[in-house]
Amino acid sequence: MSGATSKTSVVVTFFCAAICSVPCHAQTTTPGDTPRADLLLKIDQMQRELTYLRQRDAERQVWESSVVERLPEVGPPVTPTGYNLESPNCESCTPECASTSCGCGNSCGCGNCCSPGFCGCLCPPKEAPCIDCPRVSTLNPYFNIHFFGALKLDMLFNGPRPISPGTPYFLSPDSLTGLSQNTFDIHARQTNLNAAFTGPAVGCFQSGGLATFVLYNDNVIADKYGVLPMQAWGDLKNEDWRFAAGLQFDVFNPGTPTVLPFSALSASGNSGDAFRGQVRLERFLHPSADTQWTIQTALSEPIPSTIDPDFRISEDNGWPNVEGRVALGLGPLEGAGAAAARPIEVGVSGVIGQIRTTPLPPDPRVVTDVWGLGADAKWKITDCFGLRGELYTGQTLGTYNGGILQTISDDTLLGVRSSGGWLETYFYWTPCLHSHLGYGIDDPIDRDVTVATGRVRNETYFGNVIWDITTTFRIGFELTWRETAYQTLPDNDGAGFHTQFQWAF
Predict the structure, then answer these.
(1) What is the chain's Cα-based Rg?
(2) Is the distance from CB of 457 to CB of 483 less than 8 angstroms?
(3) How confident is the model at residue 63 (pLDDT cuts 50, 70, 90)?
(4) C-alpha atoms less than 13 angstroms from C-alpha of 364 in its C-beta half-sphere
(5) Are the beta carbons of 108 and 71 closer than 8 angstroms?
(6) Listed residue (50, 153, 149, 63) closest to 501, CA to CA
(7) Do 462 and 438 touch, CB atoms closer than 8 A?
(8) Measured distance CA(223)–CA(186) in Å, rounded
(9) Minimal CA–CA distance to 196: which of 156, 170, 233?
(10) Secondary structure in 3-state letters for 186-231
């Protein structure tokens, strides 16, 4: 509206200036004089432009009024209990703070409510100063975009050589001559940039979407920087249904342990943590306020190419994979938005599909079935303590991070059968300081893997401490012990240490 008003003002100003600039003797000219005719023509043209601009201004006012009516009501800003935002450095607290617990039995107290290690990570930081500059806007006025992300630096020291060194999945074979295999890596490839989209209502559904990028390239095993899309989907959803299409995480075994590496126990029991092109339909049933059934089904890309380039010796067999999951959530819904969850949730999931391998003649083409069954569960026992974990069994699940990333045997061209899982326990010492301990294992059937280079077992023990110093800055420390066994090559085992710095925005 401001653009149309400014145009109108310019036209009116020019119109008045044109009239005032006409000499007095021009009014004494005869009707046929050319200057008078030109002036009348210009006045008529300006009147038409003024009428047009007024009409556009009225149309914009009507449109803005309709948008305002559709916007949700915005309440007052939410202030965490016990904090005085008038103190820019959170040096003092509101009267409620003295009687408020910041979790796990730690009383805030006016001296501790904003101190690191107590409730300091809940204290809103001082806002960044406003800068007069162009804001991000969309060509389509019906969508809003919110950008967020994190700058991350990872430092990893490993005794035995992991694959890959900066993103450990499993260990390379031990040295036959006893050579040192120590490695040190420092990188920022987990830095991510995300964009959340919110659009207009479509019938009784709310439209939206998400895009997520990290600084890996399309082959995560390679120690190179790049731009790797992890999420790129749009959806239509309400309280009962959700339809989504795009690049998404698997429906099969969707849980992820809380660890620092990008690999997230993939190849150590965390199957199904891959991301692939997918069309998904979800149904939410609410028998009561404290109970929710979630039913998910999806058609997905059989072979994504983000982990192991060896997957590309095979291809899909002309059909998508079919994934499904049924989950039961119990307890009151806690949190908001995508982070909302119930204290107890158990789920059962599965995947079926096919891949084919065409070797050089005269060997025949081999079609291998892909199938998997999984179970996932989480239990928030108290506000500070809980358990999470997954189990799986199946065949040809290398593209689903199972089978120690082995899909087919090079000897038989048949799918590798495997089983595994992971378990994590967590404890919040304070709202700002929490620890996670766990174990994961991947155990393929020995006779199914490639004899010369096949991996037959991979285990990872982990323990970490994560310190949320503020709402934007985090430091994490993690100790791991890995063991990788091979069919014929020397087995390997050893410790690793990981330090991570994160600035979230």
Answers:
(1) 31
(2) yes
(3) low
(4) 4
(5) no
(6) 153
(7) yes
(8) 11
(9) 233
(10) EECCCCEEEEEEEEEEECCEEEEEEEEEEEECCCCCCCCEEEEEEE
Would the pLDDT of 107 be above 50? Answer: no
Using one digit for the tens of pLDDT, what is the confidence trace for 478-498? 999 999 999 999 999 999 999
Q: Look at the block and give the residue holding tokens 């291809």.
A: 315
Q: How many degrees, rounded to 5, is the angle at CA 96 between CA 94 and CA 99?
A: 135
Name the residue among 178, 181, 177, 188 with its Cα closest to residue 163.
Answer: 181
Measured from the Cβ of residue 404, the count of other Cβ atoms closer than 10 Å reads 27
* CA 397 – CA 381 distance, rounded (Å): 32
Q: Omega into 6 within 30° of 0, i.e. cis?
A: no
Rounded Cα gap, residues 395 and 99, in angstroms = 56
Alpha-carbon distance values, 93 to 1, 106, 125, 330, 420 (Å): 43, 16, 14, 35, 49
User: How far is it, in rounded angstroms, from Cα 415 to Cα 397?
Assistant: 8
Q: What are residue 447's phi and psi, to 5 degrees?
A: -75, -10
Euclidean distance between CA atoms 202 and 171, whole angstroms = 50
Helix (H, G, I), strand (E, B) or coil at 61: helix
Q: What is the pLDDT of residue 187?
A: 96
Band of residue 305 on the pLDDT scale cut at 50, 70, 90: low
Residue 290 neighbours by CB distance under 10 Å:
14
Do the beta carbons of residue 161 and residue 172 sit within 8 Å?
yes
CA nearest neighbour of 479 among 470, 466, 468: 466
Categorise residue 411: left if φ over 0, alpha if ψ from -120 to 50, beta otherwise. Answer: alpha
Spatial distance between the Cα atoms of 403 and 268, rounded to a whole number of angstroms: 9
HSE of 246, CA atoms in CB hemisphere, 13 A? 15
Q: What is the mean pLDDT of residues 283-296?
A: 96
Which of 198, 243, 164, 230 is CA-nearest to residue 71? Answer: 198
All residues at 6 or more sequence positions from 469 whose CB lies less than 8 Å from its CB, including other chains: 116, 120, 121, 432, 475
